[in-house]
């Protein structure tokens, strides 16, 4: 019996020592559990009253954030550190973040905080590196679907690739589509971007006719 109690005592002491080692020696950052992010865009939408927020942390698996410049991307797993910027055109008129008419009314916005059915056309583009490939996600709201209608995605170093946007519902009034971007338009570990992504009513007919009356988002 004494031998048995001695063994139990040593095991308990060992567990205590291991616990103290974990608490006192191992850095707290090293024992943090990594968040689990979903690959389903429907899980990236946070509803806040009438606003549908595209949660950038969820969408980029913790690698992205929005600042005054654009989408900052820093993926510790792949080592990719880069930035993307947005701009747009409303019926041929350029804007950075939102288009405001002469009366001060907002008609179009590039934002991840969308408010469907408020009369304002809204859209946003996100890109992330997944399994070594650049994957782009496009989000458009109900106002875009009603006012712009059929939407084209053109991408590549010379915007040579074309895709028709499919209005998949991510949340009520918010639609998404995604595709693999052309990796050849990037250089130096994605720090250099050539060309980009254009989302809008840029049909081949408008391109051939050099029609400047286009409504679109540009993501570079």
Structural description of this entry:
The radius of gyration is 24 Å and the shape is globular. The chain starts with a helix and ends with a strand. It folds into two domains: 1-32; 36-219, no CATH class. The protein has helices at 2-24, 56-59, 142-147, 204-208; strands spanning 45-48, 51-54, 64-66, 71-74, 81-84, 86-90, 93-95, 98-100, 106-110, 113-114, 121-130, 133-141, 152-156, 161-164, 168-171, 174-180, 186-187, 192-193, 196-200, 216-219. Strand 15 (168-171) and strand 16 (174-180) form a beta hairpin. It is built from four helices and 20 strands. The longest helix is centred in the first third of the chain and has 23 residues, at 2-24. The chain is α+β, with helices and mostly antiparallel strands. The strands form five sheets. A six-stranded antiparallel beta sheet has the order 7-6-20-19-13-14, with no helix packed on it. A six-stranded mixed beta sheet has the order 8-9-11-12-16-15. Strands 1-2-10 form a three-stranded antiparallel beta sheet.
Topology:
Elements: H1 2-24, E1 45-48, E2 51-54, H2 56-59, E3 64-66, E4 71-74, E5 81-84, E6 86-90, E7 93-95, E8 98-100, E9 106-110, E10 113-114, E11 121-130, E12 133-141, H3 142-147, E13 152-156, E14 161-164, E15 168-171, E16 174-180, E17 186-187, E18 192-193, E19 196-200, H4 204-208, E20 216-219
Parallel strand pairs: 9-11
Antiparallel strand pairs: 1-2, 2-10, 3-4, 4-5, 6-7, 6-20, 8-9, 11-12, 12-16, 13-14, 13-19, 15-16, 17-18, 19-20
Strand count, sense and closure of the main sheet? Answer: 6 strands, antiparallel
Structural class: alpha+beta
Q: Which word captures the global form?
A: globular
Fraction in beta strands: 35-45%
Q: Report the total helices.
A: 4
- Taking pLDDT < 50 over at least 5 consecutive residues as the criterion, the unreliable ranges are none
Number of strands: 20
* Strand arrangement, major sheet: 7-6-20-19-13-14
Proportion in helices? 10-25%
